[in-house]
Specification:
Elements: H1 17-22, E1 37-43, E2 49-55, H2 57-60, E3 65-69, E4 92-93, E5 99-105, H3 108-117, E6 119-124, E7 150-153, H4 156-162, E8 165-173, E9 185-191, E10 194-199, H5 204-214, E11 222-225, H6 241-253, E12 257-260, H7 266-269, E13 276-284, E14 290-302, H8 315-318, E15 323-333, H9 346-364, H10 368-374, H11 392-403, E16 416-417, E17 420-432, E18 439-444, E19 450-453, H12 463-475, E20 482-485, H13 502-522, E21 534-539, E22 553-565, E23 571-581, H14 588-607, E24 613-614, E25 619-620, E26 639-643, H15 662-665, H16 667-679, E27 685-686, H17 690-695
Parallel strand pairs: 1-12, 8-27, 10-11, 14-15, 19-20, 23-26
Antiparallel strand pairs: 1-5, 2-4, 2-6, 3-5, 7-15, 8-13, 9-10, 9-12, 13-14, 16-17, 17-22, 18-19, 18-21, 22-23, 24-25
Helix pairs in contact: 9-16, 12-13, 14-16
Length: 698
Amino acid sequence: MPDTVSALGAPAERREGPQKVTGTARYAAEHTPEGCAYAWPVPATVARGTVSAVDASAALALPGVVEVLTHLNAPRLEKPDDATLAVLQDARVPHRGWYVALVVADSLEAAREGAAAVRVSYAEEKHDVTLKADHPDARVPEDEDGTSGEHVRGDAEGAFASAPSRVDVTYRVAPLHNHPMEPHASTAHWQDERLTVHDSSQGASTVRDVLAGLFALPKERITVVSEHVGGGFGSKGTPRPQVVLASMAARMTGRPVKLVLPRRQLPAVVGHRSPTLHRVQLGADRDGTLTSVIHEVTAHTSRIKEFVETAAAATRIMYPSPHARTTHRVVPLDVPSPSWMRAPGEAPGMYALESAMDELAQTLGIDPIELRLRNDTQREPDSSKPFSSRHLAECLREGARRFGWSERDPRPRSRAEGPVLVGSGVAAATYPVVVAPSRASAHAYPDGSFVVRVNATDIGTGARTVLAQVAADALGVPLDSVRTDIGNSDLPAAPLAGGSSGTASWGWAVHEACTRLAARLAGQQGQQLPPEGVGATADTAGKADADSAYSRHSFGAHFAEVGVDTVSGEVRVRRLLGVYAAGHILNSRTARSQFIGAMTMGLGMALTEGSTMDAAFGDFTEADLAAYHVPAHADVPAIEAHWIDEEDPHLNPMGSKGIGEIGIVGTAAAIGNAVHHATGLRLRELPLTPDRLLAGGL
């Protein structure tokens, strides 16, 4: 019998690794059908108004230019649920960068030259892009999903006013941009009223369904392929304008069309993390027990699509207190529509909460870890549901041991190495367990091989590999005998890769299909399989989305050591450590990669990444990787990621939780707390850039 004990949890290497390093993995823009044309979009140059005229004559006169699409001649679409996809349907301009034309040409160079030659006139209107906490249009959104709006428990204001110890602070997180390595790209081809699209997306099934609605087609006549995706971090979670534009242009010209969005245009059209303004009020007894927690968040949204950065949602489940109020407010402005970015809500929200907890610890003279331990709980404060598992205390204690926390002098500015002040900080983290229904099939062949089919998407997480491990474990066969087919909407339908839900959702269906196949094979022992093999299917609808009696979350603890140069104001992270309780780890190699990648993103959030909305111009000034600094190798120290392998029977058959996003959640706060410990300065606006430190009196 084969040894399959280590199939699940083993550090198996990514199956697509050789393809990626040899250049044979083909991405959306690398599919070039015969006769393929190229497109280049024309963005609006005003922040609000309408298009009054479009002169495409100069563009159409250029050699190689095939067509210019505008709102006057583009194919008509059915009204989408997502208004950002209603491109070239009318003359309105809801924000700067909104697409007002698309040039299609025989070559990329001709398309780009043609786009520069299109002349657009506007009836410009006064715009407002400035987010303020006291903005007159700020409002509390409807709480349709249970995370938006306002939640109240007890008398938070009264308890805060009477608390012996209080912290009342404000924080600000700048707009952030996803900037995946692979830009948003689509190649679309119509043939006999059937649409095939290669799209850089986190969910081919979702893209297919949306395109079917827009073009009034049966889903069976659309195939979307997202076989390899070079990152998304949320910005590719739902269809973006390029897939609609490429499909429209292909239908209008009768040729395949390829569209790769220029990186400088991405901040305006594919979503971003909304800036958030936080006010956190913590009231506590003298022993550190929280008596009141108030977290108010104000964020912007666009005027065409409401998106709420639910940054107070994690506060509702993190620490118990008899009195609490968490409030989200949104301000509709003439800005691009914000959207998901890795750990939406939790990342900025936990930065504010965990920074405030550090400030409370200092006020009380209590060790920051001890303060968190004193406010640990086994029940979710809002719902009183028991946690399916919560090993936050174990993460804090194990992290403290590994980091050497006991050797830390708690006094700010207590350690210096020449002009460099050295400090350390800690923060907790949490992220919800999200699972959605999925379908999958498993097939056994006479040669001893197995094929698992599910429309999962591998966005760099190693999904192909981990799903093969789930299958091998359920079948009781060697890992090398299992192949996984993913990334095609013709495969069994599956939810998108988002919310750290992919493996839990797809894996549940794969496990169930393979368990059924194993039972079928057991009943055929001694019999030769037919040439076509035998198979089994699974659909987890009704189970994966069933209500749970438990509050299900991952938890973690982050530790950081920084050096702050008192001459230049530069902050260097010297050490980062994360310890997580995220269910059963299915692949130790890919899990560690996910944790480390997310922690690096948190480092960028803390120190280098930030965007500015120009009030006069109405656009983001940091629009490319020259101005928006994603951490490079020189910025990132050796990072350690460890975990406590939880046994949680209330999740899914694998006992797994999501791991992609929790790594970012507490990192920025740990770094900010370390900067305070090093310098004695408490900066409450991210990123912590040298100019802000020097202006703060470093």
